[in-house]
């Protein structure tokens, strides 16, 4: 009788273990890295610089296309008025299979002169350069793309384009994705929300 109870208890334990393993191995939705086809809301919390969703994601792209929408949280005043010219980072990628402060291409943005200014923003061999591409309207979607074209990046927003130099030697933009970031020298003065959808 004792042997029968032991065997039954052992079978129940094995079944329980198997069930636990099955549950643990089921794929889960990771809210920090949703599918790129969905609109993703990025939050930069007050007093922070990095956004809440910035998983490491390797990329090899010939063109990165996305829409972006800002709300009124993109309107801000820096503590030091000299920092109002600083460019915040929006979206893009590192390049040349290197750190983004060596090689990268991304969009930047800032609130200055009562407008939301958008920039092409790059690093080549550690040297940063940027060029304004346009002005975004609060509450509206803006179509953006960064195209890798040999020794150039072609930044486009809502039909306007600027060309920036590219020193990377890889055939595609090869590196990792870059996400929204506030600064510059200062932290976000309040919660800032940005909506991005890859195309």
Model description:
The protein is globular, with a radius of gyration of 23 Å. It has a single domain, classed as Jelly Rolls (Sandwich), CATH 2.60.120.200. The chain is mainly β. Strand 5 (104-112) and strand 6 form a beta hairpin. It starts with a helix and ends with a strand. The protein contains 1 helix and 12 strands; from the N terminus they run αββββββββββββ.
Distance between the termini: 67 Å
**CATH architecture annotation name:** Sandwich
Number of domain modules: 1
CATH class: Mainly Beta
Shape: globular
Strand content: 35-45%
Q: In order across it, which strands form the biggest sheet?
A: 1-12-3-8-9-10
* CATH topology call: Jelly Rolls
Helical region count?
Answer: 1
| Average residue pLDDT | 87
Architecture blueprint of SSEs:
Layout: H1 2-25, E1 40-44, E2 58-61, E3 63-70, E4 88-94, E5 104-112, E6 115-124, E7 127-136, E8 142-149, E9 152-157, E10 160-165, E11 173-178, E12 192-198
Antiparallel strand pairs: 1-12, 2-11, 3-8, 3-12, 4-5, 4-11, 5-6, 6-7, 8-9, 9-10
Summary keywords:
single chain; mainly beta; Jelly Rolls; 12% helix
Describe, in short, the structure shown.
This protein has 199 residues and is mainly β. The chain has 1 helix and 12 strands, in the order αββββββββββββ.
């Amino acid at each position: 009788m004792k042997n029968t109870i032991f065997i039954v208890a052992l079978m129940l334990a094995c079944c329980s273990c198997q069930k636990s393993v099955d549950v643990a191995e089921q794929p889960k939705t990771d809210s920090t890295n949703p599918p790129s086809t969905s609109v993703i809301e990025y939050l930069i919390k007050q007093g922070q610089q990095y956004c809440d969703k910035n998983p490491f994601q390797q990329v090899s792209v010939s063109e990165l296309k996305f829409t972006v929408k800002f709300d009124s949280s993109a309107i801000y005043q820096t503590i030091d008025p000299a920092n109002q010219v600083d460019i915040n980072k929006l979206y893009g990628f590192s390049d040349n299979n290197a750190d983004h402060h060596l090689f990268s291409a991304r969009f930047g943005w800032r609130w200055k002169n009562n407008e939301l200014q958008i920039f092409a923003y790059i690093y080549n061999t550690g040297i940063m350069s940027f060029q304004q591409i346009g002005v975004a309207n609060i509450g509206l979607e803006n179509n953006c793309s960064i195209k890798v074209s040999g020794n150039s990046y072609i930044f486009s927003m809502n039909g306007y384009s600027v060309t920036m130099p590219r020193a990377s030697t890889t055939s595609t933009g090869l590196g990792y994705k870059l996400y929204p970031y506030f600064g510059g020298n200062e932290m976000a003065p309040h919660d800032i929300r940005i909506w991005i959808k890859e195309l």
